[in-house]
């Protein structure tokens, strides 16, 4: 501590060990008692694991429009990912742009820093693994349901080179809470993107998937904007 201009200083220091936030465990309520106070949560991560980190329902007291910083740090203290979160975002949500896989094994920290002069009066933080599932060509409709802020869904299917497929979603049953759109990406077996599309609340339609370049396992990724939750019936069909 170095008080400016030789001024006298009296204060109180607290070493904050952080509050555990178990992956896929209970979502953490965001609330503070001092203006500008940061909130620190920790989670045990494994090298190579996929993890989603985000929050929703962000609110201040007194109300304001400035950004809250959401930051994730790896076990050695290095920065991993982050985002600027605003109460004005749809659903008051945001998500940290996490890497494809965690870089190391150990205890990660998630820091939520509100603007100076503001209390965190609402919100919930979630650390999650992507929702997993499988699709079968012509296997009928199934519902993809994301219930945690910033969680994504990754559904795999087996494809054959040159196969022509379409992914359909069903109108009135499409429900997005806290955002206006969901990005859908079809990834090739090597992880690169083959096709990208999006849909909104109540959308009826689908996307024609580009001719499959190789035989193997493909992945369909559903990623709601602004950490929204989602329920959408989908079906993979031949075309």
Detailed description of the structure:
With 239 residues, this protein is mainly beta. Helices cover 0% and strands 49% of the residues. The protein contains no helices and 19 strands. It has strands at 19-20, 28-29, 39-45, 52-61, 68-73, 79-85, 94-95, 106-113, 119-128, 131-134, 142-146, 153-159, 165-169, 175-177, 181-187, 193-200, 205-209, 216-224, 229-238. A five-stranded mixed β-sheet has the order 1-3-8-5-6, with no helix packed on it. A five-stranded mixed β-sheet has the order 10-12-18-15-16, with no helix packed on it. A hairpin with a 5-residue loop joins strand 5 (68-73) and strand 6. The N and C termini lie far apart (67 Å). 33% of the residues are buried. The model has no long low-confidence stretch (mean pLDDT 94).
């Amino acid at each position: 501590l170095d008080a400016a201009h030789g001024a006298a200083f009296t204060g109180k220091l607290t070493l904050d060990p952080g509050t555990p936030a178990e992956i896929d465990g209970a979502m953490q309520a965001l609330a503070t008692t001092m203006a500008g106070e940061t909130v620190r949560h920790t989670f045990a991560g494994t090298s190579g694991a996929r993890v989603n980190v985000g929050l929703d329902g962000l609110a201040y007291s007194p109300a304001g429009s400035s950004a809250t910083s959401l930051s994730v740090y790896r076990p050695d203290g290095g920065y991993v990912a982050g985002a600027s979160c605003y109460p004005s975002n749809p659903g008051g949500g945001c998500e940290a742009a996490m890497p494809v896989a965690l870089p190391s094994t150990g205890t990660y920290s998630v820091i939520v820093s509100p603007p100076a002069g503001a209390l965190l009066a609402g919100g919930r933080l979630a650390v999650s693994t992507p929702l997993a599932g499988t699709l079968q060509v012509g296997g009928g409709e199934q519902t993809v349901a994301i219930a945690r802020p910033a969680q994504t869904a990754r559904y795999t299917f087996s494809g054959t080179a040159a196969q022509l497929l379409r992914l359909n979603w069903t109108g009135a049953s499409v429900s997005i809470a806290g955002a206006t759109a969901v990005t859908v990406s079809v990834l090739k077996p090597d992880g690169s993107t083959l096709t990208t599309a999006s849909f909104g609340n109540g959308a009826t339609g689908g996307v024609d998937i580009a001719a499959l370049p190789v035989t193997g396992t493909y992945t369909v990724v559903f990623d709601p904007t602004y950490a929204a939750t989602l329920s959408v019936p989908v079906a993979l069909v031949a075309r």
